[in-house]
C-alpha cells in the first residue's frame, strides 16, 4: 500500500516537473537584435493566478499582429511593435520585453506613436498612461519628445497634376480631397476635439455635409470611391466619413466597403475598423481590437465574423 502511494507521489512529482519544463520551454529571451527573428508566433505562458480574460485579450492582439506581419512584404512597422508591446503587457510578460517592443515602435516612427498615444489619452496626465507604470523613465522621455515635435507641414498637392498623371476625373478628385480635409479640420489640434463644445459643434456640421456628399457620390457612381477612381492618396476618404457617421449609415455602407476591399479599392484595415465600430455600438464588444476601451468578443463570434467577411 505504501509502495503504491510512493509510486503515485513520484508520478505526480514527475508530471509536475514535465509541466514546469514545458512552461520554461515556451519562455523566450528577447533582445534588441533578435526580437524580429524570434517573436512571431510566440505566445508566452500564462502566469499562475493571472487574469485569464486579460491574457486572452493580449493573445488575440498578438494573433492579429503576427498575421499582419506574415502577410506583409514590408517587414515590421511601428504598429507591429506597438501591438506586441500592448499584447505582452496584457499577458503579463516581463516589463523589459514590453519596453523593448515599445522602444522599437518609437524608433520606427516617433510621430506615429505620439499620434496613437494622443488618440488614446488626449491631455490626461502621464500617471494615467498604461505604459508609464511599467517604464516610467523611458515613457517620460518619449512623451517629452512628442511635445517637442513640430507640426507637420501641410502638404499642398497639385490636384490638377495628380489627376492628369493618373487619368482621374479632376472634379471628383477635388471633391474627395475636400471631403478628406473637412473630416479632419477640427479633429486635429491639441486635445480631443469632442471635449471642446465649439470644435465639436463645428466638426459635427462638417461631418453632416460630408455624409450628404458621400450619399450623392455613391448614387452617381454606384460604388465605393476608392483607389481606382481617386488613387491610393484618397482611397480612405469615403471610409473616414462613414466611420465618423451614425450606426444607420455605417451599416448601410458596410457591404460597399467590404466590396471595395475585395475589388482592391481599399485596404482591409478600414473594413476591420468599421466592423469594430458597428459591433461596439450594437453589442458593446469588438472583433479586431481597433476601438479603445471596448471589450473583445468571444472567439466563436470572432471566427464567425472573420469567415463572413473573408478576413484571415
Helix content: 55-70%
Biggest sheet, strands in spatial order? 1-2
Number of strands: 2
The number of domains is: 2
Strand and helix map with partners:
Elements: H1 2-26, H2 35-38, H3 52-71, H4 78-90, H5 95-108, H6 110-121, H7 130-134, H8 136-148, H9 159-166, H10 170-184, H11 197-221, H12 227-230, H13 237-243, H14 247-263, H15 268-283, E1 285-286, E2 295-296, H16 299-309
Parallel strand pairs: 1-2
Task: Give a written overview of the molecule.
The chain is an all-alpha fold and 312 residues long. It has 2 domains: 31-148, no CATH class; 159-266. Helices cover 67% and strands 1% of the residues. It is built from 16 helices and 2 strands. It has helices at 2-26, 35-38, 52-71, 78-90, 95-108, 110-121, 130-134, 136-148, 159-166, 170-184, 197-221, 227-230, 237-243, 247-263, 268-283, 299-309, and strands at 285-286, 295-296. It has a two-stranded parallel ribbon with strand order 1-2. Helix 5 (95-108) packs across helix 6, helix 9 (159-166) packs across helix 10 and helix 10 (170-184) runs antiparallel to helix 11. The chain is globular, with a radius of gyration of 24 Å. The chain starts with a helix and ends with a helix. Residues 2-25 have low confidence and may be disordered.
Amino acid at each position: 500500500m505504501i509502495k503504491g502511494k510512493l509510486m503515485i507521489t513520484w508520478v505526480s512529482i514527475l508530471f509536475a516537473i514535465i509541466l514546469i519544463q514545458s512552461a520554461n520551454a515556451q519562455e523566450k529571451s528577447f533582445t534588441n537584435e533578435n526580437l524580429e527573428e524570434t517573436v512571431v508566433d510566440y505566445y508566452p505562458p500564462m502566469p499562475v493566478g493571472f487574469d485569464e480574460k486579460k491574457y486572452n485579450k493580449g493573445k488575440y492582439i498578438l494573433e492579429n499582429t503576427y498575421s499582419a506581419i506574415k502577410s506583409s512584404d514590408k517587414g515590421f512597422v511601428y504598429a507591429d511593435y506597438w501591438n506586441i508591446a500592448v499584447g505582452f503587457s496584457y499577458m503579463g510578460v516581463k516589463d523589459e520585453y514590453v519596453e523593448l517592443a515599445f522602444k522599437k515602435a518609437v524608433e520606427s516612427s516617433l510621430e506615429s506613436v505620439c499620434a496613437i498615444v494622443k488618440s488614446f489619452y488626449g491631455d490626461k496626465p502621464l500617471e494615467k498612461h498604461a505604459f508609464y507604470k511599467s517604464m516610467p523613465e523611458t515613457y517620460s522621455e518619449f512623451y517629452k519628445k512628442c511635445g517637442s515635435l513640430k507640426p507637420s507641414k501641410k502638404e499642398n498637392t497639385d490636384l490638377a497634376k495628380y489627376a492628369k498623371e493618373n487619368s482621374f476625373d479632376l472634379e471628383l478628385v477635388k471633391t474627395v480631397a475636400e471631403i478628406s480635409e473637412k473630416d479632419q479640420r477640427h479633429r486635429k489640434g491639441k486635445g480631443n476635439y469632442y471635449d471642446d463644445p465649439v470644435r465639436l459643434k463645428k466638426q459635427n456640421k462638417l461631418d453632416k455635409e460630408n455624409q450628404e456628399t458621400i450619399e450623392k457620390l455613391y448614387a452617381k457612381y454606384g460604388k465605393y470611391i476608392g483607389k481606382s477612381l481617386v488613387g491610393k492618396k484618397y482611397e480612405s476618404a469615403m471610409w473616414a466619413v462613414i466611420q465618423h457617421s451614425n450606426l444607420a449609415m455605417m451599416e448601410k455602407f458596410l457591404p460597399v466597403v467590404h466590396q471595395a476591399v475585395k475589388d482592391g479599392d481599399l485596404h482591409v484595415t478600414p473594413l476591420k475598423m468599421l466592423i469594430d465600430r458597428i459591433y461596439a455600438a450594437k453589442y458593446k464588444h469588438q472583433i479586431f481590437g481597433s476601438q479603445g476601451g471596448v471589450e473583445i468578443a468571444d472567439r466563436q463570434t470572432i471566427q464567425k465574423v472573420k469567415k463572413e467577411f473573408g478576413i484571415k
